[in-house]
């Protein structure tokens, strides 16, 4: 790949180039034989009375990157607002809270499995779950989500997932719910990383952040972790990489939702890569390696979106500006199969 004058690629490290080459391996080609849904069915679980933007930004990033079907499973009070943002998303008000649980369910203290049944019924139709954007910490919601995570792990095959925001709070309170789930990506910021480390007894205060990320992943049994920051440290316990692409300087709320949505699509593509949906040349990557590759791809896309949006908007940048940059970020860093990256888009 020629560095040219494009700031996205001009100072790219050899390691980053090698990782992007692997990301390209899991991107499916656009073939006439594919039918609707084969190139990705991603569901974002989140959205509450106070938080409607986060699930929208996540689901739209997933769609803009290229998944076929993008769902939002939200609390009923959030559904009309999220639906009004875009007709492209399939929004289902099947996430419950203390305010929306039925009197009968409240009286008998319904189990998480019972509350989660509408979502559990959807699992066979999904490639990936993205859990956390706009989720909130309502006790009924958290009980339902915990049941979803447990069921997704037991599903045959297990449903890959991305956990962020208040889903990370749930993991912090009960790390065993995701321990050993090697189809999972966590996306903590520095503060959230510290809380997760404390929850499992990892003293990382004086550790190299790259080593700390790998050690936390090991303790959690191979869950992939993206520790977000000035650079993103990414590890699935056996391998660790750094995503140091230039981003923007504005820290607007909601930028992390572009990351979770992008990860959702990369995990869906990873799934169909391993299912052999298209002919693959050369040696096939292992599932362990493609988990790291998918995480790196999501990080790289998000940081490039941030750079592009900041270049245009400067301090006025908002999360929605990143959404508009997803496709060109993909074309610049990864490119369509058989065509390669494009410069100066």
Topology diagram in text:
Elements: H1 14-25, E1 41-45, H2 53-65, E2 69-73, H3 79-85, E3 90-92, H4 103-107, H5 112-120, E4 128-131, H6 139-154, E5 161-163, H7 166-173, E6 184-186, H8 190-199, H9 209-219, E7 224-227, E8 232-235, E9 240-243, H10 255-274, H11 287-313, H12 319-323, H13 326-333
Parallel strand pairs: 1-2, 1-4, 2-3, 4-5, 5-6, 6-7
Antiparallel strand pairs: 7-8, 8-9
Helix pairs in contact: 1-11, 2-10, 5-6, 7-8, 10-11, 11-13
GO molecular function, one term: ATP-dependent NAD(P)H-hydrate dehydratase activity
Enzyme class: lyase
Subcellular location: Cytoplasm
Salient structural properties:
345 residues, alpha/beta, 13 helices, globular, nucleotide-binding, NAD
Mean pLDDT rating: 95
Oligomer: single chain
SSE-based structural type: alpha/beta
SSE topology string: HEHEHEHHEHEHEHHEEEHHHH
Principal-axes geometry comes out as globular
Beta fraction of the residues?
A: 5-15%
Domain module count: 1
Give the biggest beta sheet. 9 strands, mixed
- Give the beta-strand count: 9
Strand order across the largest sheet: 3-2-1-4-5-6-7-8-9
Cofactor: Mg(2+)
Subcellular location: Cytoplasm
Main location: cytoplasm
GO molecular function: ATP binding; ATP-dependent NAD(P)H-hydrate dehydratase activity
């Amino acid at each position: 790949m020629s560095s040219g004058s494009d700031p996205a690629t001009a100072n790219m490290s050899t390691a980053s180039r090698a990782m992007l080459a692997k990301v390209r391996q899991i991107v499916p080609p656009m073939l006439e034989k594919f039918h609707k849904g084969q190139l990705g069915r991603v569901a974002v679980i989140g959205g509450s009375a106070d938080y409607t933007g986060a699930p929208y930004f996540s689901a739209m990033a997933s769609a803009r990157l290229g998944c076929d079907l993008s769902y939002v499973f939200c609390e009923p009070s959030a559904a009309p607002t999220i639906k009004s943002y875009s007709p492209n998303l399939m929004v289902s008000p099947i996430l419950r809270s203390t305010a929306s649980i039925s009197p009968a369910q409240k009286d008998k203290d319904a189990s998480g499995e019972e509350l989660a049944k509408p979502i559990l019924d959807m699992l066979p139709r999904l490639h990936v779950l993205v859990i956390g954007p706009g989720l909130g910490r309502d006790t009924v919601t958290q009980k339902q989500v915990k049941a979803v995570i447990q069921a997704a792990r037991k599903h045959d095959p297990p449903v890959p997932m991305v956990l962020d925001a208040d889903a990370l709070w749930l993991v912090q309170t009960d790390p065993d719910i995701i321990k050993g789930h090697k189809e999972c990506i966590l996306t903590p910021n520095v503060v959230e990383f510290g809380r997760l480390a404390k929850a499992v007894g990892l003293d990382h205060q004086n550790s190299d952040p790259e080593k700390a990320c790998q050690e936390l992943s090991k303790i959690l049994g191979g869950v992939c972790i993206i520790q977000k920051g000035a650079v993103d440290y990414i590890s699935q316990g056996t391998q660790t990489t750094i995503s140091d692409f230039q981003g923007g300087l504005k820290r607007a709320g909601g930028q992390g939702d572009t990351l979770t949505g992008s990860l959702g699509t990369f995990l869906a593509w990873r799934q169909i890569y391993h299912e052999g949906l298209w002919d693959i040349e050369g040696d096939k990557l292992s599932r362990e390696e493609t988990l790291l590759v998918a995480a790196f791809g999501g990080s790289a896309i998000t940081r490039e979106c941030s750079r592009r949006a900041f270049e245009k908007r400067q301090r006025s940048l908002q999360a929605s500006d990143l959404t508009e940059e997803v496709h060109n970020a993909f074309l610049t860093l990864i490119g369509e199969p058989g065509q390669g990256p494009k410069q100066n888009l």
